UniProtKB/TrEMBL annotation:
Region of interest (Disordered), ranges: 86-118
Region (Leucine repeat I (LRI)): 175-235
Protein name per Swiss-Prot or TrEMBL: Scarecrow-like protein 5
Alphabetic keyword roster: Transcription, Transcription regulation
Ranges where the record places region Leucine repeat II (LRII): 335-367
Family: Belongs to the GRAS family.
Pfam families from the UniProt entry: GRAS
Residue stretches of biased makeup (Basic and acidic residues): 97-110
Organism superkingdom: Eukaryota
Amino acid sequence: MRPSQNAEDINEFNRFFNQPIEYQGSFFLPSVNNPNNNQSLYADRGQQTQVSALKPDQHCYVESSTGNSSELVSDSPPIDAFFADGTPMMHQGSDSCRSDMHHSPDETHHSSGNSSCFTSDVTDLKHKLREIETAMLGPDSESLESYNTTPVAAANQISSESDKLVGVMEMMPRGDLKEVLIACAKAIAENNLITAEWLMSELRTVVSVCGSPMQRLGAYMLEGLVARLASSGSSIYKALRCKEPTSVELFSYMHLLYEICPYFKFGYLSANGAIVDAMKSENSIHIIDFQVAQGSQWITLIHALAARPGGPPRIRITGIDDSTSAYARGGGIEIVGRRLSSVAASCNVPFEFHPVAASCSDVEIKHLNVRPGEPLAVNFALVLHHMPDESVGTQNHRDRLLRMVKSLSPKIVTLVEQESNTNTVQFFPRFLETLNYYLSVFESIDVALPRDHKERINVEQHCLAREIVNILACEGAERVERHELLERWRSRFSMAGFEPYPLSSSVNATIKTLLENYYQSYTLDERNGVLYLGWMNRDLVASCAWK
C-alpha cells in the first residue's frame, strides 16, 4: 500500500466523476455544458423516459437500490461522494446502508446482488431499441455509408446488435449482477459501445459500497470499466493512492485488513518459518526485505529468534521501500528501523537496520550492503508482481532482480504472491480473473465485518479498490498490478538458477493454528512444496522458498 499525495490527480479524479458521461467517438468522456444534451436514461425515481442511447446525460453513480422491486433508483450519490472521506453520502429515504441489515456468513458465498432495480419491461425495451434503429437508419444515405455496407446490411447489423442487447437485458430480472458485469466487459472488449453504455447505466442502479459482496465489488469493477473507456484509469489509480485519508487513518485501515483476514499473516508467518529453519545454525543473519513497509513481518521473527536455544543470532535487516510509502508510515523508512530496534532491544537481540529508500526496480547490488561470508536471506513478500517484465518493455526488472539476488548466493529466498493471472492476458479474460479473485476476497471480508461498517468501506476503498481499477483500466507501464500464478513464478526462479527449498512441517502446523482463529471457509493446501491459502477452495495467496 503506497499512497502519495498529488493534488492534480485528485482534482482529475473528482472532476471526472462529477461530470456527466457523454458518448463521443470511441470513449465515454466528461461532457461539456450542452443545453441540447438533456435526455436521460432514467429521470426521477421509477420513471422511464425517452432513451437517448447515443448521448445520455447520465452520471456515474454507485449506490444500492432501495429494495423496492417496482422502482428504479436514480438519485444515488456520485462515486466521489464516498471517495472523499470514506463515508457514503446517503440521501434521505435510502436504506442501502441500514444498521439493521443482518446476514449470515453462508449468504455471502457467490452472491449475485440485488436485481430489483434492473429494467424488467423487455417488450418496452425492444420498442425503444427499434426506435434507436429507426433514428440511426434515417433517410440520410451518408449515415449508412459510415457502416461501409448497404442499407439492408446495415439494418441487419444493427438489428443483430439490438437483439443481443435484449438478450442481455432479459437476464436482469433474474438478478444476475455478475453476469451483467461480464456482459458489459465483453461489450467493451468488442468495442460495442452502445451495449456497454446501456449496461453501465443499469449497473449503476444496483451496485453498492455497502451491499452484498457482489454489489460492493461491482461498484469498483464498474468504476474500472468507466475509467477504461474514458482513458482515465491512471489518474484515478493515483488519486485513490493519495486522496485522503491521513497517514494515521490509512495505517488503521491497513491494520484492520491485516487483522480481519489472514492473508498477510499467512505470508509473513510462512516466510519467517522458512527463514528460521534455514538459519537455525547461524550466529548472524542478514535479511534483505524488498518491501519493508511497516516492518510488521519482522517483529514476530525477532521474538522467535530471541527464544532460540543457545541464544539469538545477530540480526541485520536491509529494508527497501520507495518514498511514497512514507505517507502511510507518517515518515521516512528510518521509522521502521527505530521501531524494530526497540523490539529487538526488549528481547535482548543484537540488531542493526540498514534503510534503502528506493524503488525495487532501481535497486542494485551496491545498495544492499552485503558483507562477504554473511548468511543471507532475501524476502519478496507481495512485491514482485509490481515489477515490469518483458511484456512491458525492454527493461525486465522482474527477472533482473532474481538474477541479481542469485548472484549474492543467499541461503534462502522467500516468495509470497497473490495466486492470480493478470499480467499478460488480454482485457476480457483479465476482467474475469479479477472478478472471480476479488469476489472471494470480498466474501471473506463480509463474514468478518458488518456490511454497514464504516471501517469496512474504508478498507475496501483504500486497500483494494485502486488495485481493481488499475488492473481493469490501465495498460502498458501504467498497469502496475501484474499478478502471475505460482507456476509462472516457478519458471522465473528456475531460469534464474534457483532450486526449491521445501517448507518444513512446522510451518504448515503454524499456519493451521493461525487459521483456527478465522472463519472455517479458509483453506490451506500444500502442493509440490508450496503452501496455498484460499477461500472456499479458491487459491488466493501462495508462499514458497528457494535456494
